[in-house]
Please model this.
Amino acid sequence: MFRVLRVWLATALLVGITAGCTRDPEVRKREYLESGQRHFNQGRYREAAIQFQNALQADSRFAAAHYELGRCYLKLELWNSAYNSLQRAVELDPSNRQAQLELGQLFVRGREFGRAREKAELLLKQNPQDVEARVVLAKALAGLRNPDAAVPELEEALRLAPNRAQTYLELARVHADAERMKPAEENFRKAVALDPQSVQARLELANFLARAKRWQEAEEQIRKAIELDPKAVNPRAVLSRLFLAQGRKAEAEQVLVEAKKALPDVSEGYRMLADYYVTSGDMEKGLAEYASLLREHPQDLKVKKNYIQLLILQNRIDDATKLNDEILKGNPKDVEGLIHKGQILTRRGRPNEAVQPLEAALTVEPDNPVARYNLGEAYRLLGNTERAEREWREAIRLRPGMASAHEALAAAAMDKGDVQGVLQSGEALITIQPSSAMGYTLRGMARTARQEWAGAEEDLKKALELAPASPAPYSKLGALRAAQKRFAEAEKYYEQALDREPNFAEALRGLLRVYGGQRQPGKSLPRVLDQINKAPQNSEYQVILGGLYLGNKQIDKAEAAFAKATELNPYYLDAYYLLAQAQKDQGGTERAVATYQRALVVAPASARTHVMLGALENERGNWQRAEELYRKAMQLDPDNPLAANNLAYLLLEHGGNVDYALSLAQEARRKMPEASFSADTLGWAYYKKGNAVLAIDLLEEAVKKAPRNVTYLYHLGLAHQKAGNLSKAKSLLEKALKINPDSPRAEEIRTALSDLE
Model:
């Protein structure tokens, strides 16, 4: 019995010691660090990042884990997270030269050349013989457009390490960017001579030669690179691009067919052919190739995820959902899987549900630009345009070359009439994608708005050349001709746009404006009905039709058209707003309220819908409900100036907190300085605070902009009364009563007049 007891005690003691070690934060953090390093060395960067994060949970000041986590983020191209981790690493351990150096290199990549220069100079102050730091300094100087200062730094680096081929490559790049072709070529060739086994050096020399259209020499260097590393992906990709640059498409494709055979175990290699089909616009071949790859490599998540993205883009939502659910079942926190889920829900017309998985993706990777972009799209569909724009701007900050985010911001700028915003987006896209029509189209639009006719025409003709099958350049050329009052040509361009894409509503709207410019409004209704016959599922055409019926005072038909638009597209919020207005115009206030409530069901995060329903509720006397709606709008979109203005006014009218109302009114006025109602609300707030002088200035502005607004006249009259200007007050109040003796304010106005007698 005693022997059994001793064994039991020894076992318990051993278990206790083991458990104690496992709970020891020092031991635990080292184990996580080593595990993460093993994952990192095997190229499993996400798994490595999780282990380094676990190490930091054990010890948040573990500098080595911050550094290793930063390296993972660099590999994953999560630049903001990489910066945060590396910065924390050097704060905790300033002696970590490699972390300092990688921060400098990160600044160069992010085009923050001033910060890169500071970091390099700091390292060189510590060690003037630091070759890598000197190279970072040179790259920073080159980025600051000072190649003459960059060259001596690189030459000094070569003096310190004369056989370093990478430095010759950097020197060659600086000369090439400065159009100094002879020294550029000399240095590229020197790099190859120093390291003839370097694939990178040969490919950079090949790219330089291709730039000079020395095709054969470039091809020789690329084929040598393939010989040096037959399992490398990049040389084969570069060779394919070289053939494409020469118009040799069949040979470019054949290179990728051969790559697929030569690299059967390298995902990036056997995916190149499928990606080529997709980027060249042959989506059918791309889908077929990815379907084949998924059968051959069912465990390759990258293949599966790329295939899912293609299926989503082709609106094969059920197929995409099935595959994506498999990914999320295996890992509910898979970032790409969550993003795809958000995209799928958005495509299904459920953007309110899409927000949750996209925000979950950002919880895992806060600086994922694709998640930010798609979250912006979801908020756009929900009517929260300000939040959408914030997400798109953040996506661009994280990935400056993200064309889709620039295009989204351009569309938002167009909606607001922000010509400068459209111009900036267009020029950014031209820089990012010089062979794409979109940037030229946008810049052409902006130049049209500025009446820069020659520049606009040049841009739009360039867009037409780049995308002859797209309706957009034709439509924009139509807008240019209409602005020039060359209506016959404008009409021709708009019709050409609609021939290419029957659903292109922009062109139909432009065509109607041309009819107006030619004083032929009678052509509008038949032309719209004809286009609806060609594109019967187009909800925007129903809105256009409803607008024409409204103009003809055919309210019943307008209401039917707007209702049809909401049936065709349940998330088309503007259609709900127009429908509600048509219903209200016919005395159907209850139906209008019901329409707004339907809009809130499909878009519960739309601040604008809350504000519009609030205004209607206030108008029919339900001010408490209106206040709830305005407060909800402020929660959804704290920057919404209309919600702030309307809530401020309700508080002032119904005994709310005047100081809070004043702050809301000031914010609304700052964001809507031209609106008469913002001047009136802020003036009324100052009146309630007892400051008649400030009130009068603002209220006079409101009356000047809307001289027959009874409420504005009433407010201004009371302000003058408080200031002692009794005759002026009487005149204003009498004018208000004369304009509308039966207004809701009439009794208050009569009471105020009696007080003046």
